[in-house]
Amino acid sequence: MTIGGEGEWLRSWIGSSDRDRITVGGRDLPTDIMGRFTLTELAYLLITKREPTDGQRRMLDAVFVSLADHGLTPGALATRLTYTGAPEATQAAVAAGLLGAGSVFLGPAGDTAQFLAAALEEHSVDAHADDATLRSIAGAAVASRRAAGEHIPGLGHPVHKDVDPRTPRLYELAREADELGPHLRLLALVAEVHEEITGRHLPVNGAGAGGAALVDIGIPPASVRGVVLIARTAGLVAHLTEEAEHPIGMPLWLEVERRAHREDIDLQ
Question: Is residue 183 part of a domain?
Fold first, then answer.
């Protein structure tokens, strides 16, 4: 889309429209996109500027599905409670839930993607690096994070202490789709090396595995956190639908008020 006769620099390949036509990704929306592309395929096209292969589409879709919802997380509660106070503002409720994507919930997908990509780039390895090379990189990456007093992105989960159920399935799907790339392989070795060094088992979490999978299929590491928000939006809209039918926001608020009032009385 170009704005102004002299504004040739002010344009976007992503989409444009005029009186008679709408284009998305440089293609005519009604004839070339609608009915031909799924939302997953369109997202990949817009982000990478190329159509996904079958394997890439399958993995992106699997990551979307794996991250759509994880129960009554802080983000889901933020969405429901915002709706309680402003039921006319669906967009605000969804936004409230998305703003909770951080280092504990959902955000590890992007953090892990950038951590793994940086480690591989530092050692200039390609997609065909052998396990010995990747294990050496994993050791260096873990040691560096530990020396800096930082946690290892992609490891550990506040609920799934032994195995995150999503992780083995994502690895299985990646193998089936021939998309088990260096980022997923490195992440598994990071978990192994970390356990060997610390004696503490921290499972690869689903968000971290999802982030690694996304980079393996060509999503830029810096875009991963944004990409996973597409998935979580679906879950938050579902929470809003359920909240309208079976509200828990108001009872939750009243319960907190009741307990806070009781605590005030106990302290006097």
Answer: yes
